[in-house]
Amino acid sequence: MSRFSSFKKVIPSYLSCAFVALFSAGCNATEYPQLDIHDPVMIKEGSKYYLFSTGPGITMYQSNDMITWDYADRAFKTEPDWARDIAPGFNGHLWAPDIIEHNGLFYLYYSVSAFGKNTSAMGVTVNKTLDVNSPEYQWQDKGIVLQSIPHRDSFNAIDPNIIFDDNGTPWMSFGSFWHGLKIVQLSDDLLSVAKPEKWATIAKLNRDPFTDEAEPGSGQIEAPFIYKKDDYYYLFVSYGLCCRADDSTYHLAMGRSKSVTGPYLDKNGKDMAQGGGTVLLKGTKAWPGLGHNSAYTIDGKDYLVFHAYESADNGLQKLKIAELSWSADGWPQVDSKALNEYRSAVRTPIQK
Predict the structure, then answer these.
(1) What is the pTM of this model?
(2) Fewest Cβ atoms nearer than 10 Å: which of 65, 84, 204, 210?
(3) Helix (H, G, I), strand (E, B) or coil at 345
(4) For the chain, how many helices (H) and strands (E)?
């Protein structure tokens, strides 16, 4: 099925604009507002694409073409019943999801936290289908996968990303600030950390050694996403500060390894666990900050999915999807024009 097949359902004036907007910067008029989304992850079931985003209950959208999106549901009608016991400063927003399909089930991982605190935990909820009209559609929360506690743990248990290595073993990378980004092996049922525990630090920036262990510190790194392509695992991370409109310094960096646990080396051969990382994409005047990406091969093409803050809209975060190309020596590339070329649209907004 063509990813443009659903254009027939959209009025003609928007059809031409949406098509042009995906491939050129020459079209500005739209019939619908751009999709406001944070920390996007995507998956395809059948002919539909699904997006999951930070927000109350984890916001879920669906699309036939990856351009026009309709609000579909929230994974939680309210919030996990354990959330406020873990994070007293929790404000009802579930953060930074990841979605995978495994053995006929969809696993949606999410974060519970309070901004700038490592009173955090990552949980998982499971569904047989993402089709909200199916009688089998029902999210079942399986609770906490991993928790961080101030002064006990040197990491922040947020921003989960799941990958299976070449042996079929499941791993979860995660982390934000503190002592960097970690990876840990998961149990075969994907609901807990495997025993005995197998950990590694995969990326880290310098931290002032005198920083209180309950504080995030100066190492501005978060949001790991590991993507396998040919012989390498590619680690994407977000450096800088998010969520500050025009003052956002968020940008994407990367490294690669032949082992899922690293070491992940940048183009200069520097280990990302020792402060390395080659910049993949930085902001512009129009889009000053961007980050928290995911990456996929869908219908034979490789895509980078992320959000960017639009200066012309008071720094509001917008969905971006860019096609990945590859250099002769096997490094992913993104044309910076993608920030202006891709224009998502939301036909059905979030239901309050």
Answers:
(1) 0.90
(2) 210
(3) strand
(4) 3, 23
